[in-house]
């Protein structure tokens, strides 16, 4: 399973959506279910899945699927 597939699985699990709707704009500003609990769930699964520890800036910046991809790249995870 590729790292992008793993990230997709995280979002599918947290939001209960079909993988086909995921795009860089899928985020806090246009997903009504996106709240702090969902965001923390994403962070927890990302840290566990990719064996990384995100800093507070990255945690607060992870407000969309696209932002999460950028944060993973910044932390050395190839997508």
Oligomer: single chain
Major sheet: none
Query: What's the tally of helices?
Result: 4
Shape: globular
pLDDT below 50 for ≥5 consecutive residues: which ranges?
A: none
Question: What integer is the average pLDDT?
Answer: 97
Helix content: 55-70%
SSE order: HHHH
Structural class: mainly alpha
Strand % is under 5%
Overall number of strands: 0
Radius of gyration: 11 Å
Distance between the termini: 11 Å
Topology:
Blueprint: H1 3-15, H2 36-50, H3 56-61, H4 65-74
Helix pairs in contact: 1-2
What does this protein structure show overall?
The protein is mainly alpha-helical and 79 residues long. The chain contains 4 helices and no strands.
Compose a concise summary of this entry.
By secondary structure, this protein is mainly α.
Provide the descriptors you would attach to this structure in a database record.
single chain, 79 residues, mainly alpha, 4 helices
């Amino acid at each position: 399973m590729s790292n992008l597939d793993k990230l997709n699985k995280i979002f599918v699990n947290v939001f209960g959506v079909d993988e086909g709707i995921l795009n860089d704009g899928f985020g806090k500003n246009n997903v009504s279910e996106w709240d702090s609990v969902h965001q923390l769930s994403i962070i927890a699964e990302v840290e566990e899945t990719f064996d990384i520890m995100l800093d507070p800036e990255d945690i607060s910046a992870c407000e969309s699927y696209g932002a999460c991809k950028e944060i993973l790249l910044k932390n050395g995870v190839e997508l």
